[in-house]
Amino acid sequence: MKIADVVQSADWKTEKHVPVIEAPDSAKAGEKLAIQVSVGKEIAHPNTTEHHIRWIKLYFKPEGGKFAYDLGGYDFSAHGESVEGANKGPAYSEPQATVAVKLNVSGTLIAEAYCNIHGLWESSKEIKIV
Fold first, then answer.
1. Burial of residue 96, with CB atoms counted within 10 A of its CB: 0-12 exposed, 13-18 middle, 19 or more buried
2. Which residues are catalytic, by number?
3. How far is CA 129 from CA 14, 24, 64, 121, in A?
4. pTM of this structure
5. Per-residue pLDDT tens for 61-98?
6. 119-129 sheet: strands from edge to edge
7. What domains are there in the chain, each with its CATH number?
């Protein structure tokens, strides 16, 4: 079995677990870009002690390249837990992060997200560097 066998994907507009990548369709080489990744943009994902997004990872695979490059990992650690019990805590992390990157070639952004109940989900977005 391979990791690809357990990763799920779908359209984020109809499936709440799919990570959303918000980035321009094109940019200039070496230009600083703000890329946002999130889960639950169109359909809110629960953010409870029992059911939550634990992390999102963002990668970049250059066009024609063999390997993907790790752009960042974002952990979401507060889900309402406390000594008073589940969902009674003072803090809830929202599964959303923004990273600034500079790209020199065109390629594909790939995001993976992990739901503590429904497992791994992924999506991708091409970006053209001019």
1. middle
2. 15-17, 45, 51, 115, 118
3. 29, 10, 13, 26
4. 0.93
5. 999 999 999 999 999 999 999 999 999 999 999 999 99
6. 26-27, 119-129, 107-115, 53-62, 69-75
7. 3-129 (2.60.40.730)
